[in-house]
Inverse folding.
């Protein structure tokens, strides 16, 4: 009788194994010609993994984790408070994460040589583009190798790193895996990794977990996966550099394996800040890529389906990317490759289908809208920003945009498409736009590091620059904007606002006789005008960058309207300023 029962159990296991193998190859075949939105097929595959032991009752902590992960992917793709004005009755609908997540294409390498620079394009250019992200992650996390060192996932800002980790946490979380997703921006930066994990578990479940070991009985059945999301966020939130963080994660894995508790660790980061950390040799590194035409098209279909009622009610056409063929259309298509910018373009288009007529598109309004939304997205991560009044928030946002504009002006004045780290530090100091950074024993990030990590910057792929100084010197690391159109607009923004600010100052002196001496100083002395003015107009002729000049012409009327200054008054006053300075 016992032998018969054993035979039945073995037969059942064979059936389960056969079902799993069939589902695996079915998904592998589908991956070549379809996109697994939200990793729903991966979830089915993981759920079909045969169990040797059936867990009768899951731990309360694990149940809480599962509910948290599932709830998180049923939230809109952007937090409700991030676009509150768009959530009003009858307004936009933001699809759920599980319905809108499009798996990214990727490239992957194993860091063998210490000299490999992960932040450089040259390290990735020869590698093939892959489209089987879900299967790759499943295969990697199912292999013994995944317990020996962390998997490092890199991407540019807005590439969908956090959405990927949320989807993974929910879809991998089952009786087969235990997943803990740690948002590094929200943890104690000075705590060790195990404490960060345990604190996250306590925050999610409300259960005080004095030791990770208490979950170990479940680990033999459901191997643990820890996702440390946002190494770059850890740096930006604390202003400190944790160069040994990935090595610390690897040491934790080694320790857990020695104790019979193999641990899989995934760490995500923006590419621009990965040079701050030591990546152990042998680490598998995955880089998320931009959307292709199929991914963009599928995302647009999901967006349009979610907002069908909104479009009908407001007599707006569905969102559609332009076909290309002119500079404005090509620029929009280039921006849309980044998932976050694609979302922002879709939001922008809801205002009377503003992107439809690309030939007559006001590019400066588009870029200003995109930059404002992105900067607000970054600032909202700070609790101090959320506690401020609306006027204070607006002021903080404008200062951040001014910092970005100062970097763009630095490239413009130096007549280069890149800028060195040391030059950014110098320029921010020159314009009085420094961040407040507190020093610590671990060292502080530089002013440039703080800014570079907060926007669409990439490393310039050259080992030497005109200075002839070796690239390894941190002050000579070069950066450029991910999209040069941002650089051109931000340079124009700095120049326009510098000119308008001087005109506003003269306007104030004209309306008050007590300021006559200030007016005379501005008009008739070389040091009467602020350094912003000279930085904008002295070093590089405006005609040397035709696109920047075009941007100035497009953007100026908007800034004048915002400042309540007529164009005729501006031109007359600007002429007075220029002629008096020439004299």
């Amino acid at each position: 009788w016992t032998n018969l029962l054993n035979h039945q159990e073995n037969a059942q296991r064979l059936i389960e194994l056969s079902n799993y193998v069939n589902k695996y190859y079915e998904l592998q075949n589908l991956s070549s010609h379809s996109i697994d939105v939200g990793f729903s097929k991966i979830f089915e595959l993981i759920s079909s993994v045969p169990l040797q032991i059936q867990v009768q009752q899951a731990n309360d902590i694990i149940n809480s984790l599962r509910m948290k992960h599932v709830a998180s992917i049923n939230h809109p793709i952007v937090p409700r408070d991030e676009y509150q004005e768009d959530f009003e009755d009858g307004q936009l609908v933001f699809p759920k994460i599980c319905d809108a997540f499009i798996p990214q294409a990727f490239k992957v390498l194993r860091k063998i040589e210490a000299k490999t620079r992960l932040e450089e394009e040259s390290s990735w250019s020869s590698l093939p583009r892959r489209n089987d992200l879900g299967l790759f992650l499943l295969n990697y996390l199912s292999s013994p190798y995944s317990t020996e060192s962390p998997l490092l996932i890199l991407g540019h800002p807005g590439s969908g790193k956090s959405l990927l980790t949320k989807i993974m946490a929910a879809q991998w979380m089952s009786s087969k895996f235990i997943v803990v997703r740690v948002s590094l921006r929200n943890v104690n930066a000075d705590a060790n990794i195990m404490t960060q994990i345990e604190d996250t578990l306590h925050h999610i479940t409300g259960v005080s977990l004095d030791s990770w070991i208490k979950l170990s009985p479940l680990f033999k059945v459901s191997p643990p996966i820890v996702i440390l999301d946002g190494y770059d966020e850890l740096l930006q939130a604390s202003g400190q550099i944790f160069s040994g963080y990935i090595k610390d994660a690897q040491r934790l894995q080694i320790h857990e394996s020695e104790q019979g508790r193999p641990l899989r660790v995934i760490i995500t980061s923006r590419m621009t800040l990965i040079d701050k950390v030591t990546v152990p040799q042998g680490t598998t590194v995955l880089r998320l890529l931009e959307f292709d035409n199929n991914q963009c098209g599928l995302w647009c279909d999901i967006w349009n389906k979610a907002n069908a009622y909104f479009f009908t009610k407001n007599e707006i056409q569905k969102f559609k990317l332009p076909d290309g063929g002119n500079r404005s259309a090509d620029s929009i298509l280039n921006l849309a490759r980044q998932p976050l910018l694609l979302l922002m373009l879709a939001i922008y288009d809801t205002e009377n289908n503003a992107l439809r007529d690309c030939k007559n598109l006001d590019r400066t309004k588009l870029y200003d809208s995109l930059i404002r939304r992105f900067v607000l997205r970054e600032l909202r991560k700070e609790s101090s920003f959320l506690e401020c009044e609306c006027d204070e928030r607006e002021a903080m946002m404008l200062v951040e945009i001014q910092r970005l504009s100062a970097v763009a002006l630095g490239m413009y004045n130096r007549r280069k498409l890149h800028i060195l780290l040391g030059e950014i530090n110098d320029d921010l100091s020159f314009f009085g736009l420094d961040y407040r950074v507190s020093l610590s024993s671990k060292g502080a990030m530089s002013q440039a590091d703080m800014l570079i990590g907060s926007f669409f910057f990439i490393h310039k792929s050259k080992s030497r620059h005109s200075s002839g100084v070796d690239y390894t010197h941190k002050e000579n690391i070069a950066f450029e904007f991910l999209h040069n159109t941002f650089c051109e607009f931000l340079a124009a923004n700095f120049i326009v606002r510098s000119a308008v600010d001087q005109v506003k100052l003269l306007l104030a002196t004209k309306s008050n006789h007590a300021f006559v001496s200030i007016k005379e100083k501005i008009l008739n002395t070389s040091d009467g005008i602020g350094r912003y003015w000279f930085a904008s107009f002295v070093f590089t002729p405006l005609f040397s960058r035709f696109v920047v000049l075009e941007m100035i012409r497009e953007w100026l009327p908007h800034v004048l309207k915002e400042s309540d200054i007529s164009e005729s008054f501006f031109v007359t006053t600007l002429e007075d300023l220029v002629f008096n300075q020439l004299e």
